[in-house]
Automatic annotation (TrEMBL), chains A, B:
Keyword Protein biosynthesis carried by entry: no
Keyword Transcription regulation among record annotations: yes
Protein name in the entry: LacI family transcriptional regulator
Pfam families per UniProt: LacI, Peripla_BP_3
GO molecular function, one term: DNA-binding transcription factor activity
Boundaries of every HTH lacI-type domain copy: 6-60
SMART domains per UniProt: HTH_LACI (SM00354)
Source organism (scientific name): Neorhizobium alkalisoli
Alphabetically ordered keywords of this record: DNA-binding, Repressor, Transcription, Transcription regulation
Length: 334, 334
DNA sequence: TGCGCTGTTGCACATGTTTGCAATCCGGTG
DNA sequence: CACCGGATTGCAAACATGTGCAACAGCGCA
């Protein structure tokens, strides 16, 4: 493989100017006469020249690369968020570098090291938590960090979170208003702050309303976990008549098991609610009442902060966004 | 933002060696004594040094960047393929640059220009088709190209396709064996080669078996299209008793409409099959009989070819992979 | 003509690496 | 001691670009 790209030098020769003129022709706002710029762009077009962003990044100390650190990309909610982020990054003139993490130790740290190696302008973390020392290293290197739905107290990164606790509370009162008496919460074992927030808010509100909550945790946040949680909750001596599932995927698995295996009618005998508002929640086999993740708003906030000159605004303390309750058919009484 | 990274120079000074020694310490197989390498790595660790891959790419003419060009990342099949690709890229020591395209003209071309600007070693295209001139430019620049499920005749890029026509034929005979008489094909208007291949294979095989096929095309390849196609096909004078849907998402929409709106029993009154084997196809609300995309195999082939020294093997003509039929509950008679 | 100003252009240095080449060192052998 | 070979190391050139500085051209004005 030859790997021969055309360089600014060749364009300069063809256009009969110096190499710096070529550079300036591709730099908006630089001092070039309209005529020479035209000539240079024509020569570039003809030769198939494209500015080498690696070299440009080396000089400018700004690569235009933003790292997206995520695990389980194939999950509906994650992939929707990923799409929103990449799209908005692109229209902001940046480019996304995607790094997959897994549940193993140090996975996120390795991802951030990759970000450093490529001198990314920023990293957006959607899964896991990096080690404190790596975060410090990133910040020290001038790399911006955004944490989505992760909890962390150290200052520096932008933290974007939802009002998870309030959501838990809202659905608890909705359940009570629907006449439900025996509440349950179907969670995963992942134990991320957002999941635990939903659980806490739900539990506290129920207690205020004079009801107890049965909490079960199992597996990850997927469909299979929902099925297993249904086994555990629906075989209880006094079966719950309302379940708040920590994610929509769990809710789908739960509903499928409830209907097809236990022959329970939803919402007549059992109210179900989820979280995320994934596409499947709207499918007519589910019509799930759920909270919608404000993905575009999340992406907007993140990218806006990345592009700002002085990021030390009021934002530096973290952003808290609101998740709307989407009423569909799985909770009685709209 | 200061943007101050630590350079090899500083590490060299701290370790009391030359800058080239530092470089060699980070290059596997380079000539450094074990002792100096140890000293250098220690100094690097302490200072938080990470090789600048931009500069390295500049020198080596190999960046380690692979561009993934895709539209509709949030779609189940796409996101699964994306995950397989990024994971395998990572374990091959490469890094994925994600570029979103839309249906507008020249969108893929712009993506490839981005790939060129960052001097990507290769690009993998999963959506749309680039202009011939851009493909030529990429190849001329030594960039490798992989086209997944796209059709194209010009030599150079690696083309990975499935045996779509055979799948169409296989499901047609399965339908006939189940006693179905009135076959239908529910396609999207997208008209990509793989979709059309399935349609063609299905139709031809049906004709060989002495049956006609009603074909309807509508919208994109999603759930909504499936619902609309159900409207159009299930209100026909002599209603189909078997439908092959071009994608699983279409099949899900189709089944939901058939069951909840038309009250049709599946598979007793209507057999349904899909394509892709997305996660939802296995959910107990659907249990869809479908063809599974060999995603890991696709990713494997693609990355293997990218890493090869001389890519002009027998592969240069293109690869044809087999999609397995997954029997579930929506077609009578396993 | 001489002067100052503005807008354009080229020179040269800077960015952080890799790597070919030559120099150095060290141990072993004649 | 001279010499040889292998391993290790440093020097300097290269990669493709951006940009400060000075030079220069052109123009208006005194």
């Amino acid at each position: 493989m030859p790997k021969e790209f055309v360089s600014a030098q060749e364009v300069a020769e063809k256009a009969g100017v110096s190499r710096s003129a070529v550079s300036r022709a591709f730099t908006p706002g630089a001092s070039v006469s309209a005529e020479t710029r035209r000539r240079i762009l024509a020569a570039a077009e003809e030769l198939g020249y494209h500015v080498n962003h690696l070299a440009r990044g080396l000089m400018r100390n700004e690569t235009g690369i933003v790292c997206l650190v995520v695990s389980e990309v194939a999950t509906p909610y994650r992939s929707v968020l990923l799409r929103a982020l990449t799209q908005q990054l692109q229209s902001a003139g940046k480019v996304a570098m995607l790094i997959n993490t897994d549940r193993t130790d140090g996975s996120v740290d390795r991802a951030l090291q990759q970000a450093i190696r490529y001198r990314a302008d920023a990293s957006i973390i959607m899964s896991g938590m990096p080690d404190k020392s790596i975060v410090q290293l990133c910040l020290r290197s001038g790399q911006r960090l955004v944490l989505i739905n992760r909890d962390d107290d150290q200052p520096g990164p932008l933290r974007i979170n939802l009002d998870d606790e309030e959501c838990g509370a809202r659905i608890a009162t909705a359940f009570v208003r629907a006449g439900c008496k025996r509440l349950a919460f179907a969670n995963s074992e992942a134990g991320t702050p957002s999941l635990m927030g939903r659980e806490r808010g739900f539990q506290m509100a129920a207690k205020r309303l004079g009801l107890d909550v049965v909490v079960k945790r199992y597996g990850q946040t997927g469909y299979e976990a929902g099925r297993v949680l249904a086994q555990r909750l629906l075989t209880l001596p006094d079966r719950p008549d309302a379940v708040f599932c920590a994610t929509d995927l769990i809710a789908c698995g739960f509903m499928d098991a409830a209907r097809h295996q236990f022959r329970i009618a939803i919402p007549d005998e059992l109210c179900v609610a989820g979280f995320d508002d994934i596409e499947q929640a709207a499918w007519s086999s589910y019509e799930l009442t759920t909270f919608s993740q404000p993905v575009t708003e999340i992406a907007e906030k993140a990218i806006k902060w990345l592009m700002e000159d002085a990021p030390e605004g009021e934002m530096s303390t973290g952003v808290r966004l609101h998740a709307d309750l989407v009423w569909r058919g799985t909770v009685r009484g709209a």
